[in-house]
Design goal:
By secondary structure, the protein is mainly alpha-helical. The protein is built from 14 helices and 5 strands. The structure holds adenosine-5'-diphosphate and tryptophan.
Length: 321
Amino acid sequence: MRVLSGVQPSGTLHIGNYFGAIRQFVGLQDEHECFYFLADLHALTTVQDADRMRALVRELAAGYLALGLDPARSVIYRQSDLHEVTELNWYLSTVTSMGLLQRCHSFKDKVAQGVVPSHGLFAYPVLMAADILIVRSDFVPVGKDQKQHLEVTRDIAASFHATYGREVFTLPEPLIQDEVAVVPGLDGQKMSKSYGNTIDIFGPEKPIRKRIMSLVTDSTPVEDPKPTEGSALYQLLKIFAPADERRWVETAFAEGGVGYGDMKKRLFEYFLATFKDARVRYDELMADPAEVDRILAAGADRARETVAPLMDDVRMAVGIR
Ligand code: ADP
Ligand code: TRP
């Protein structure tokens, strides 16, 4: 089966990105033909500063590789290197109704957060459909928040098929991991760079420790049992704790006697243990940009070969060839 997914280089990688997306990408490499890209064109809807864009692309590429995406097994590329995506985007946009896009939550949510309601932001789901349909992917691993975009992708593919009377695309299915559907942030809301409540994966230890120690908790005294309902600290401990420490977490909350400060220190230790190797590898990759560029260029070449037959079918179907 073919798998495709992408992450926007629109901010520093945080643990929500890892548990909600990248960890799943890594696991799928064993059994599937995987395509993982950096959605830099999508990121232009929010990042409009060239130097920052270049830096974020570099960080995300290093992050992908450090966290275990393997160029020997997966095709790893930059969206903007695959020009066919923007060509397909146009064909798809001509069979996409305004109403379909008007129903998308993510557009409304981003505008509510203060993002400029540009045409690009409105048409974001069409470009995403192009990303997915262009490699004929069967599965798309994403967080819950992207589920609607997958439905829109299927609707757009079906509309193209109905308009041109040819079935050129594969209708993709989302792969949503239920256990960690939404990773909570420091304040208990969904962890997201736009809420400023993230725990970053890379970068110096000290500020990360400080962020973890600032996790919002209630005022239950040390000796009392602690409520688990709605507790971000509890959820994060459960996500990070190695199998043999899960009981400790349950007992600490159920029986009391452990203060929130100690629990947060434990969380920081779990964090470091989880990402120790990745953090070393990330620093190495950040120090060797030529190696990262080489991997991305090779990935783009492989992606281009893969999409060529589909693009021929599409051009034939619309009468451009
Ligand atoms: P952010 O919300 O910080 O802007 P993105 O929208 O760039 O993050 O998300 C990139 C990927 O990480 C997506 O697949 C998304 O579903 C996943 N993701 C982001 N935040 C979380 C979270 N808190 N819990 C689970 N998955 C998440
Ligand atoms: N919209 C996705 C996000 O914000 C990123 C993305 C762009 C994507 N194109 C995609 C994800 C195609 C999966 C498949 O996380």
